[in-house]
Amino acid sequence: MPKTKDMVPLFGVAGFPVNFFKSEYRKNRDNIFKWLKGLDLDILELQCTYGIRMGDEQALRYKKLAEENDILLTIHAPYYVNLGSKKPQTVINSKQEIIKAFKLANLIGAGRIIFHPGGGHGKTDQDRADGIKQIIDSLNDIKSDIDTENVKIYPEIGGKVSSLGSLDEIIRICQNVDYAYPCIDLAHLHAREQGSMCAENNIIDVLNKIENELGRDYLDNTHFHMYPVDYTIGGEKIHRAFADKDEFNNAYMPLANDFISAIKAKKVKPLVICEAYNTQEIGAILMRDLYKNA
Prior knowledge:
By secondary structure, this protein is an alpha/beta fold.
């Protein structure tokens, strides 16, 4: 899946950063690929926040532009997808959106679809286990309707304490769906665990857990979302920029340095998407340069 033969980590952005719309390319969204290439970044994660609405013509055009500018494409499925819901119609609709995301991925040349597992199944341990089983069953139900050879699905760690998608739950999904790999949003993990990703060794522990419970292939193909976050007792509050400081002049975590040191220590070279607040490309460049200069 990586583009280069020397197998370096690839860094990119989620959606269209604010600074793109301040650039000389701002008048045409198709120029996002030239803009990213000019910044020497590698990935655009398309945010299908409100639904899979891209037409075939635009998808094929984006595929061509991405190839011409050496940009890898990934897709984030709609945020309202909720395979863990107790409402049968919500689950049916969510399965259809995942199928549509796979069709778009085939057209556009994306090999990864990221999605939020959802919630609303209840608060007890048994409720959560039932919700995760429902997600597993739903993904296995649609397997015959999608291309799982060329496209994989990535359940993402949830940012809220109440949402499905703890690290253990993501691993459980991947153990039971043969086309699922982990999307480790380290900021979400930090927030839902009330500040757990505060040092390099904490991130290494996550990488070790994935390797030990899923295997090295899963670790090598793990998809990362990386940026700092502010949180409350309920979990994620707001994304932050890497340069932001709290009221005590401390940087928000997780830190870019800790993440880069951890992936170097584990010798993984992943796809990394930056979702730093209004500074996605700045954060991606920061992490890329830290890796190159470490």
